[in-house]
Amino acid sequence: MIIPGIFVFLMWLVKIVELLFEIDLSRFGIYPLTVQGLPGILFSPFIHADFHHLFNNSLPLFFLSIALFYFYSEVAVRVFIWTYFITGLLVWIAGREAWHIGASGLVYGLASFLFFSGIIRRYFRLIALSLLIVFLYGSMVWGLFPGVYKNVSWESHMLGFFSGAFLAVWYRNQGPQQPVYEWMNEEDESSSAKATEDQGENGGNGEEENLNDEENNDEETKRLRDLGTNLN
User: Fold this and answer.
1) How far is CA 64 from CA 149, 171, 198, in A?
2) Is 106 within 8 Å of 64 (Cβ atoms)?
3) 2-170 is a CATH 1.20.1540.10 domain
4) Alpha-carbon distance 165 to 120, whole Å?
5) What are the tens digits of pLDDT across the range 32-88?
6) Domain ranges of the chain
């Protein structure tokens, strides 16, 4: 909870500083494929157009970050950092010729990671979290498409979403996994023992059938000999 709290606090601090000193920090956002836009990969998530923009990003970012650090504590820091920089770099490479500011790309990245991780890991607690993400932020899907919202960096949303999905696959074997309960092991052992017994019974039946076949062959041979003797 400390890292999400500090991050959101810095977002609000930056906006307050803008207002107090009457400055515009948008030039520290991401401007794709330009040298002056490179620092935005680091700074753009802290810069917002107004308080409405800031508020809309603060709540979901805080909630999703807490969920990440609580349920995926082992990989949370790495996922957060990689989502942060991968999303920013992709926006710098593939975004429109405009200044891209705000933490919405990071929000979409975290939401995507939490959703796909729960599905991939097939752990009921994480699947429940995935369903909660859909319930709370399912409408965010419209932000992935161009033209739905005006003056919105849909590229940040889409590329953040892809970054989160990629990281969910990349870290699928790290962090929380579906637990294996004792009764599951007992069932596996019972199945193995039963299979072994069936094989043993089948083997025993096969031996009995072979003995019966040999006895039948001996009787047939003896009968033919007796018949030959009678003919002579």
Assistant:
1) 22, 17, 52
2) no
3) yes
4) 10
5) 999 999 999 999 999 999 999 999 999 999 999 999 999 999 999 999 999 999 999
6) 2-170, 180-232
